[in-house]
Amino acid sequence: MYRSRSITAPTAEPAARPDLPTVADLIVTRLATHTTHVFGVGGANIEDLYDALHRTAHPITGIVAKHEFGAATMADGYFRATGRLGVVAATSGGGAMNLLAGLTESYDSRIPVLALIGQPPLTLEGRGAFQDTSGGPGLLDAERIFAAVTRHCEKVTDPADIAAALDRALTAALQGGPAALLLPKDVQSAPLDVRAPVAAGNGIATPTAGSTAVDAIGSLLEASRGRTVVIAGPEVGRVDARAELLALATALDATVLVTPDAKDAFPNRHSRFGGITGIMGHPHAPDLIAHAQVCLLVGATLPMTARAGLDDALRDCMHVLSVGAEKPYVRTDIHALGPLRASLSALAGDLRARGIAAASATAPGHSGATAGGILDAGADLRHGHADPVRETALPELAVPPATGPGVRYREAVLAIRERLEPGTTVVADAGNTGAAVVHYLPVPEDGRFLIALGMGGMGYAFGAGVGAALGRGRRSVVIAGDGAYFMHGHEVHTAVEYHVPVTFVVFNNNAHAMCVTREQLYYSGEYTYNRFGQARIGAAMAAMFPQLPVFTASTLEEFERALDETRTTSGPAFIELRCDPDEIPPFAPFLKELSA
Questions:
Q1: Alpha-carbon distance 479 to 461, whole Å?
Q2: DSSP three-state, residue 183
Q3: Is the pLDDT of residue 206 over 90?
Q4: Distance between CA atoms of 229 and 244, rounded to whole angstroms?
């Protein structure tokens, strides 16, 4: 009988506890001030870290994934869902190399992740050590390799240097992006002076605010109340500036659009929510921007996936302004570099002050609203008032009808939408399935939305959903295609092992369907490399994990029944949904090609 493991930190003493704290003990103590979980895959040259996790008295838990990519995405998803540092651990050699793809996603998406990478003992470097990547003659150089995919990479060769090395790595990661520490096995196990420093600063470092730029933006926004469109990007979620964004949008009487990887930056059912930009976005977004007096980019750099179809509209807009840690890829009249939450609070506070002053001049003693009926969103949030809810549906991309077998994307996503509980984290994977989820599925109240658009790596959602659920203590719903499942879907085993509350929904069309569509639209369509023989994924899951609730659905009614039956499970659940490999998703480049 398979038994799920508890995810509470163990308290039993190990059989052979070191007489003195080790470097690994210090690392775990420091990590406990930043995170609650360490995700990884074990191995000879990282086992001292896991041994320290086992014996620590701190509330921090080690999780073993099935693959280092999965562990890296767990750490990435953990941060995106919680705002706390993601930590991943791997052994040397192939285990270390397996981290690379996951770290590139964190790098491109500016996600704070600390990678702790075991290395062979220093005493064996250059002497035939197994998995030697010390950079000697004829050897790979791990430090150079990981330096290319991290903000900071350092190899610790003296146990006395560990505290300072941790400081440097944590500082780099918390500024936005992964950092790596290469830890030789004999360094990890070395006794440590108990007087070594432990405490360090906590929180994400941010650049100094540019007050002049913020003041200039504030003046333009004051003159454009009611004629401003905001585009919110993923930085809003990274620094949790959601409340500040809502307050500013209310003060501006603005419509808020979000980029595909920032769906949870603004309440999707709020009356001010205007939809999504980019290749999976809503078709009215360009008109909203083109006819606005000001387009304000909030933590949005607008790479191609987020700005497709917007270039002409941004040129037509009178003023394009920006606040955030990075300059956008489009032209801006003013960019205010600085901590996003502080900048948004300053702008909203200034606008409210000016509005109240104007209202007071015409109506002495008036309180509770600013000029023009603009509410004090800050007060509204403080007193827990309900947000005004959008009453009309957003315009959708028009997709051609599908005639193949199975359930349609839109029908399936709407069925999921009707059953999402408040606080749920939705994690979407790459491909046609991801496009449908981005376009059709609103983020539930107090929920989170995760998607990997930095590198777009298939299979990201399975690990990220586990990490998000463990971090938030709330259910994750992972929505992915069968291609993504076959890459990294066996992180389902990790969810079963630790009884993690994740519902995995796999759209199975027995194809890499986005590649099938590309073969048909951009090439002859007379051949295919991307259609596969039938795979019964649900049956396979049920056979592997008899205690896992598993459902296979071929009709909408079967799918709705499966969703209903999995709502009450406390741990993981798995649903296979059969669908059509030839269905065209709500993906603007495909639809443009079809209409050409």
A1: 7
A2: strand
A3: no
A4: 16
Strand order in the sheet with 273-276: 273-276, 255-258, 228-232, 294-298, 319-324, 334-337
| Cα–Cα distance, 484 to 434 (Å, whole number) | 10
Segment 395-415 shows an average pLDDT of 96
Instruction: Mention every residue, 6+ apart, whose C-beta is less than 8 A from residue 384.
Output: none
**What are the tokens at 437?**
């989820």
**Three-state SS sequence of 209-222:** CCHHHHHHHHHHHH
> What is the pairing mode between strands 228-232 and 255-258?
parallel
What are the residue ranges of helices labelled H in 473-575? Answer: 482-488, 492-497, 513-522, 537-544, 556-566
- Residues for the chain: how many in total? 596
- CA–CA distance, 492 with 112 (Å, rounded to integer): 24
Among 197, 364, 231, 248, which residue's Cα sits nearest to residue 301? 231
CA distance 17 to 424: 41
Helix residue spans in 363-431 (DSSP H): 377-382, 409-419
With tokens 């046609």, the residue in question is 432
Q: Report pLDDT for 375.
A: 33
Task: Quote the pTM value.
Answer: 0.90
Six-digit token string for 542: 């049920």
The answer to whether 548 and 496 are in contact (CB under 8 A) is yes
State the alpha helices, DSSP H only, in 19-141: 23-31, 47-55, 68-82, 94-97, 100-108
- Quote the CA–CA distance of 365 and 549 in Å, as a whole number: 62
Pairing relationship of beta strands 448-451 and 152-155 according to DSSP bridges: unpaired
Convert the pLDDT of each residue in 291-314 to its tens digit: 999 999 999 999 999 999 999 999
Q: How far apart are CA 288 and CA 126, in angstroms?
A: 62
Residue position matching structure tokens 């071929």 = 554
Instruction: Tell me which amino acid residue 286 is.
Output: P
- One-letter-per-residue 3-state SS of 233-270: CCHHHHCCCHHHHHHHHHHHCCEEEECHHHHHHCCCCE
Q: Give the integer Cα–Cα distance in Å for 357 and 420.
A: 43
Using one digit for the tens of pLDDT, what is the confidence trace for 26-69?
Answer: 999 999 999 999 999 999 999 999 999 999 999 999 999 999 99
- Residues 6 or more apart whose CB falls under 8 angstroms from that of 525 comprise 519
Instruction: State the alpha helices, DSSP H only, in 109-141.
Output: none
Sheet containing strand 476-481, strands side by side: 448-451, 425-428, 476-481, 502-508, 573-578, 550-553
CA angle 267–273–277, rounded 5-degree value: 105
